[in-house]
Protein backbone atom coordinates (compact mmCIF):
# COMPACT_ATOMS: atom_id res chain seq x y z
CA UNK A 1 0.00 0.00 0.00
CA UNK A 2 2.81 2.42 0.89
CA UNK A 3 4.47 1.71 -2.45
CA UNK A 4 1.21 2.45 -4.26
CA UNK A 5 0.79 5.75 -2.40
CA UNK A 6 4.40 6.68 -3.12
CA UNK A 7 3.93 5.87 -6.80
CA UNK A 8 0.71 7.93 -6.93
CA UNK A 9 2.43 10.89 -5.22
CA UNK A 10 5.34 10.74 -7.66
CA UNK A 11 2.91 10.53 -10.57
CA UNK A 12 0.98 13.59 -9.36
CA UNK A 13 4.22 15.53 -8.81
CA UNK A 14 5.39 14.57 -12.27
CA UNK A 15 2.17 15.82 -13.87
CA UNK A 16 2.24 19.08 -11.92
CA UNK A 17 5.85 19.66 -13.02
CA UNK A 18 4.80 18.99 -16.60
CA UNK A 19 1.89 21.44 -16.30
CA UNK A 20 4.21 24.10 -14.94
CA UNK A 21 6.58 23.50 -17.81
CA UNK A 22 3.71 23.93 -20.28
CA UNK A 23 2.72 27.23 -18.64
CA UNK A 24 6.33 28.39 -18.69
CA UNK A 25 6.73 27.35 -22.34
CA UNK A 26 3.54 29.22 -23.28
CA UNK A 27 4.78 32.29 -21.40
CA UNK A 28 8.10 32.18 -23.24
CA UNK A 29 6.32 32.20 -26.62
CA UNK A 30 3.92 34.99 -25.57
CA UNK A 31 6.66 37.22 -24.18
CA UNK A 32 8.96 36.70 -27.16
CA UNK A 33 6.18 37.78 -29.51
CA UNK A 34 5.32 40.75 -27.28
CA UNK A 35 8.96 41.87 -27.18
CA UNK A 36 9.08 42.00 -30.97
CA UNK A 37 5.72 43.80 -31.08
CA UNK A 38 6.93 46.33 -28.50
CA UNK A 39 10.03 47.11 -30.55
CA UNK A 40 7.81 47.62 -33.60
CA UNK A 41 5.49 49.87 -31.55
CA UNK A 42 8.47 52.00 -30.48
CA UNK A 43 9.49 52.46 -34.12
CA UNK A 44 5.94 53.14 -35.35
CA UNK A 45 5.04 55.29 -32.31
CA UNK A 46 2.08 53.11 -31.41
CA UNK A 47 1.33 54.84 -28.13
CA UNK A 48 -1.74 52.72 -27.35
CA UNK A 49 0.34 49.55 -27.52
CA UNK A 50 3.11 51.09 -25.41
CA UNK A 51 0.59 52.30 -22.78
CA UNK A 52 -0.61 48.72 -22.42
CA UNK A 53 2.82 47.07 -22.63
CA UNK A 54 4.44 49.11 -19.85
CA UNK A 55 3.49 48.73 -16.21
CA UNK A 56 2.49 51.86 -14.32
CA UNK A 57 5.56 51.36 -12.11
CA UNK A 58 7.97 50.90 -15.03
CA UNK A 59 11.67 51.64 -14.45
CA UNK A 60 13.26 52.24 -17.87
CA UNK A 61 17.04 52.61 -17.64
CA UNK A 62 18.69 53.78 -20.86
CA UNK A 63 22.17 52.67 -21.89
CA UNK A 64 23.62 55.97 -20.62
CA UNK A 65 22.16 55.36 -17.14
CA UNK A 66 19.30 57.85 -17.48
CA UNK A 67 16.03 56.55 -16.01
CA UNK A 68 12.42 57.18 -16.95
CA UNK A 69 9.11 56.10 -15.54
CA UNK A 70 6.30 55.05 -17.89
CA UNK A 71 4.89 58.52 -18.45
CA UNK A 72 8.31 60.11 -19.01
CA UNK A 73 9.45 57.42 -21.43
CA UNK A 74 6.35 57.50 -23.61
CA UNK A 75 6.43 61.31 -23.54
CA UNK A 76 10.07 61.25 -24.70
CA UNK A 77 8.94 59.36 -27.80
CA UNK A 78 6.05 61.81 -28.36
CA UNK A 79 8.38 64.81 -27.97
CA UNK A 80 10.92 63.35 -30.39
CA UNK A 81 13.65 63.02 -27.76
CA UNK A 82 13.65 59.26 -28.31
CA UNK A 83 13.08 58.33 -31.94
CA UNK A 84 13.57 54.85 -33.28
CA UNK A 85 14.10 54.51 -37.01
CA UNK A 86 14.76 50.79 -36.79
CA UNK A 87 15.30 48.10 -34.16
CA UNK A 88 17.04 44.92 -35.28
CA UNK A 89 16.79 41.97 -32.89
CA UNK A 90 20.02 39.97 -33.01
CA UNK A 91 19.38 37.72 -30.00
CA UNK A 92 16.36 37.22 -27.76
CA UNK A 93 16.20 34.82 -24.83
CA UNK A 94 13.12 34.51 -22.61
CA UNK A 95 13.04 32.57 -19.33
CA UNK A 96 9.78 32.06 -17.47
CA UNK A 97 9.35 31.75 -13.72
CA UNK A 98 6.60 31.58 -11.11
CA UNK A 99 4.39 29.17 -13.04
CA UNK A 100 4.38 31.31 -16.18
CA UNK A 101 3.67 34.60 -14.37
CA UNK A 102 7.12 36.22 -14.56
CA UNK A 103 9.52 36.45 -17.48
CA UNK A 104 13.11 37.62 -17.68
CA UNK A 105 14.32 38.56 -21.13
CA UNK A 106 17.84 39.25 -22.25
CA UNK A 107 18.91 40.07 -25.73
CA UNK A 108 21.05 41.94 -28.17
CA UNK A 109 19.66 44.63 -30.47
CA UNK A 110 20.85 47.35 -32.78
CA UNK A 111 18.82 50.54 -32.62
CA UNK A 112 19.00 53.22 -35.25
CA UNK A 113 17.50 56.25 -33.58
CA UNK A 114 17.50 59.98 -33.15
CA UNK A 115 18.10 61.42 -29.69
CA UNK A 116 17.60 65.18 -29.29
CA UNK A 117 17.74 65.53 -33.07
CA UNK A 118 21.06 63.70 -33.53
CA UNK A 119 21.16 60.40 -35.51
CA UNK A 120 22.94 57.45 -33.97
CA UNK A 121 23.16 53.67 -34.05
CA UNK A 122 23.49 51.76 -30.80
CA UNK A 123 24.40 48.12 -30.30
CA UNK A 124 22.81 47.14 -26.97
CA UNK A 125 22.61 44.22 -24.59
CA UNK A 126 19.44 44.47 -22.56
CA UNK A 127 17.42 42.90 -19.77
CA UNK A 128 13.65 43.13 -19.42
CA UNK A 129 11.42 41.86 -16.63
CA UNK A 130 7.76 41.26 -17.42
CA UNK A 131 5.01 40.34 -14.97
CA UNK A 132 1.68 38.87 -16.03
CA UNK A 133 -1.07 41.00 -14.51
CA UNK A 134 -4.39 39.14 -14.17
CA UNK A 135 -6.32 42.04 -15.74
CA UNK A 136 -3.78 43.75 -18.04
CA UNK A 137 -1.77 40.76 -19.26
CA UNK A 138 2.00 40.97 -19.69
CA UNK A 139 3.54 44.21 -18.43
CA UNK A 140 7.14 45.41 -18.73
CA UNK A 141 8.23 46.47 -15.24
CA UNK A 142 11.95 46.86 -15.95
CA UNK A 143 14.16 47.67 -18.93
CA UNK A 144 17.91 48.10 -18.62
CA UNK A 145 20.41 48.28 -21.43
CA UNK A 146 24.13 48.63 -21.90
CA UNK A 147 25.96 49.83 -25.01
CA UNK A 148 28.26 47.35 -26.69
CA UNK A 149 31.11 47.90 -29.07
CA UNK A 150 30.07 47.33 -32.69
CA UNK A 151 31.09 43.95 -34.08
CA UNK A 152 34.30 44.11 -36.10
CA UNK A 153 34.05 42.97 -39.71
UniProtKB/TrEMBL annotation:
Keywords: Signal. Residues 31-140 form the DUF4440 domain. Pfam families: DUF4440 (PF14534). Residues 1-19 form the signal peptide. This is Nuclear transport factor 2 family protein. The lineage of its organism: Bacteria, Pseudomonadati, Bacteroidota, Cytophagia, Cytophagales.
